[in-house]
Amino acid sequence: MSPLHPAARRASATGLALAACLSTSPSLAAHAATAAGPGSGASAGRASHSATGNGPGSLLDRYYRQRPDWGSCARGPQDAAGRAMDGTGLRCATLTVPLDYADPRGRTITLAISRLEATDTRHRIGTMLLNIGGPGGPALQAPPVIRKAMKDVGPRYDIVGFDPRFVGRSTPLDCGWPVGTAWFSAGAGRAGFDRQVALQKNLAAKCRSAGTSVLPRTAGSPPVSVLPHVTTRNTARDMDVIRGALGERKISYLGYSYGTYLGTVYTQMFPGRYDRMVLDGAFAPADYGPRMLTGSERENEKALADWAGWVAGRHDTYRLGRTRAAVLATVDRVVAASAREPLRVGTGADAFRLDDTQVPALLFSATADDTDPARAAFSEQMSVLARAAEGAAPVALSPGFAAALRYVLHGGGEPSGVQHAVLCGDVAAPRSPRTYWRDVERSRAAHPLFGPLTHNIGPCAFWDRPREEPTRVRRDAGALIVAATGDPRTTYRSSVALHAQLPGSALLTLKGANRHGLYGRYGSTCVDDEVNRYLATGVLPRKDPTCVTALRTDS
Fold it and tell me: Alpha carbon of 57 to those of 5, 39, 43, 240: distances in Å?
């Protein structure tokens, strides 16, 4: 779950906004049935309204029989991002897919795809498709980063990125939110929660309005809303069209975070059409949905406490406390001060006010990365908040902190809303604000900092119900599941649960890390080598392997 836009993530060393929820890395924003043939529209016809349903088969053939017209990624002389992709060797193309797979003769949308071709063609394995998380994370720029992580096996794959439907350079949806994310805390009391109810209702209304403006109206027809079609199941169907358009009988797949759920859904909807599958930071499908952060409070508290131990050893630099307990007491004082009166930070155009619904969200966002650079950046930012809580005069913010706050609090002029459009379109959420308030109050005693955030109301409370039931795991699938024991976003328990649901899978565990997203991002040679061995051979480990990282809690 990645609320922070790529531009803001690049500007923030920690991915400060809640972007770290279910994304993997700031740099990445810039992973037993008979196989059908590569152009099998009949296979995609199953992509009607069930995993194995009877779809309109031949009507989908025209989508599967497309062939990408690979060319420059730059869309004009002013397209700096496109030119940068060209410079990495990427080639880009556009595919057409149905808005509604149940109506393949109806309206269509476009998908932007990119490819880094295999250079070791003599030993080519196949095509690997990428999803870096979100929902709503663009992956068009990701193939060069992933090839680097793949080391010697990288040149043996065509590595394909794509911006999922309504994201980035695909047909876009922008809800025009006044904030960059919907993930906030309910605050310290009823007043904060009531502000959240009003905000979240407004965010849902803005998406409802924007959803009817994405596609041009045809003469004499009413406006068509795309919101019912912004779903994971439809993205999985799009993936299978990409497979067919690339001429592949099977595709390999690397998915991080939310991308693990997408990958699991693909295995259930299109059995026999995937080869090697890596799911890094995985969700068990039962844990996925608008309220997927509930149950992660202990992991986030532990991650925050471990950071407190780290920064306590650097009190002379950050002035947050000389012991873990002292640092955590400073955190409590900052949150309490923001409940009394919004904290004032920054100067000039980069001046911000942070209340008790926003400060816990910033703290929560910082727990998903325990590397020293991330901890150092977060510590600097906490020092700013601590001075504000003491009433000190605001000082200029670092560019990264300012960019992150600008996006979280004001939207930063970036597209917004797709993440929740997917979540709300996938799984229904409770409708009554009373349900959320009750859950917030119940969680507050045990988890006073993070409980009111993980149980808070969101825009899905005001959304239309999904058109399809959530995907259930009914088929085994061979996959390599990668998980850190201290992952604060997709908890280790969830990865273990998915492993149990997929007996043919293997679970690669990294002990001692409070980190979300490992392969190629965290610097664990053990993890990277295990994943690359699987990608090279296609053989899962016979026993679930375990890697170990040094605990960094006070040094």
Answer: 37, 11, 7, 13
